[in-house]
Amino acid sequence: MSDKRMTVDDVVAELRDGMTIGVGGWGSRRKPMHLVRALARSKLKELTLVSYGGPDVGLLCATGKVKKVVCGFVSLDSIPLEPHFRAARQSGAIEVADLDEGMLQWGLYAASLRLPFLPTRAGLGSDVMTLVPELRTVKSPYDDGEELVAMPAITLDVALIHMNRADARGNGQFLGPDLYFDDLFCMAAKRRFMSAERIVPTERLLDEGSIHTLRISRMMVDGVVEAPGGARFTSCEPDYERDEVLQREYAASAASPEAWNTFRAKYLGEAS
Amino acid sequence: MTDYSLYELCAVACAEAWRGDGEILASPIGVIPTLGARLAKATFAPDLLLSDGIASLVANTLPLGGSSPDKVVESYIPYRAVFDIVWSGRRHVMMGASQIDRFGNQNIAFIGDPRRPRAQLLGMRGAPGNTINHPTSYFIAGHSARSFVARVDAVSGVGYDRAASLGARGARHHQIRRVISNKGVFDFETPDHSMRLRSVHPGVDVKDVIASTGFSLAIAERVDETRAPTAEELRLLREVIDPTGLGKKELGP
After folding, report:
1. Which of A81, A121, B113, B128 has the fewest CB atoms within 10 Å distance of its CB?
2. Does pTM top 0.90 for this prediction?
3. What residues of B are in contact with residue A177 (Cβ under 8 Å)?
4. What are chain A's domains?
5. What is the least distance, in Å, from the CA of B86 to any CA of chain A?
6. Is A100's CB within 8 Å of B116's CB?
7. DSSP3 helix / strand / coil % (chain A, rounded to 5)
8. ipTM of the predicted assembly exceeds 0.90
9. Which candidate, B81, B27, B66, places its Cα nearest to that of A178?
């Protein structure tokens, strides 16, 4: 039985410039920040990020890793606008494909099912259709003849997710209120890396949650990293709530290069 | 007459948007719409379903803010279920708008050039999918010619002219029920579905509303005053739904 445990450096070693990387979680909730920080410290560049965006997107924008962001929003929840993402977009440094939240789900789902697209009404009539020029519509082949958005598959090179518990073989468990779309990120990606608060023996996986919490199976995961506190400063309930103090420091650090250098040294563990 | 504040009047006007909706998900975004939705459910719209903003549908009336040990959870509603409900049409959302135009096109995405916006806002969020799939209302706390504009910088929420361009089939689930601002209540019940002043809040002049709006507003022959809160509505708002006064903080005094 294969043991998929690895270090965060092993994960970074598998990544290449220009890759499309999907990040699980939602806003400032259960983001794989331990893995994201390692990307921020790396020499990687020109990444395309696909995310229900939070500080994962902002941090990688602030560290110059990002070429393009595919998202429905980028928010810190308790701080509605992500200041580092705003700065990057307002300076013209990054390209953004701003989709409806449901369209993003549909694109990941299409990729996970190996379909070229999935139809939806979401997007019709809005400027998503003009601002994301690769989007096309499709006419229903049935009698209704309805014109729908053909949401293209969003295929990922890599998915990064963070779970509350995992086993060494790659089974993952969420114990908080919402899985978000972490399973779809994994299913849509060629290589999938999962960090977890704690790695436990497989036979202990039902100790803390019902069978319904086992939504990530080992066929969806290539590598497991044990990372206690690995979502901080985002929330990872029930293990911990969002660290609002640290999040405020992060947000405030967008104000000046000096503030950013100080925060960067503290959060990324680098000399400034 | 009972004394009340602007935020209480607005909360009641927001509540009215959900009247008659029956057993659907009411999704208020922001403090005043949330007060409104909880008030509607606690009074004239008891069948509405309301989320706690995390992943639970809550049966009882919760106070705004803080944790609620008395929360009665009636069902599970993670984001994936919300998206399915949006596309099924069993929902009425009330969003904010940084900009709104004469036909109800809403912008929450950005201001300026999309390649290099002057101000990045929230992004598209769920606005495109919401507006094309089920009823939508808006609450805009700062009514001015900068928010009620001739042309929005980006269309997040779809307005009536954009919906009409999709044809009868594409537009059949689109409806903008109400716009509530700090000056009045608006609807689109005109022949061309352009925005109409439905009522003004007490003390607001119709001329002031017209002057604060950046497009030509349809005016009903007789413009009513927005309904005042009842004594029971004020009691519910002050004692049960918003005991810590978050509404007043949002839209004082």
Report:
1. B113
2. yes
3. 54-56, 78
4. 8-115+155-200+207-265 (3.40.1080.10), 116-152 (no CATH)
5. 9
6. no
7. 30, 25, 40
8. yes
9. B81
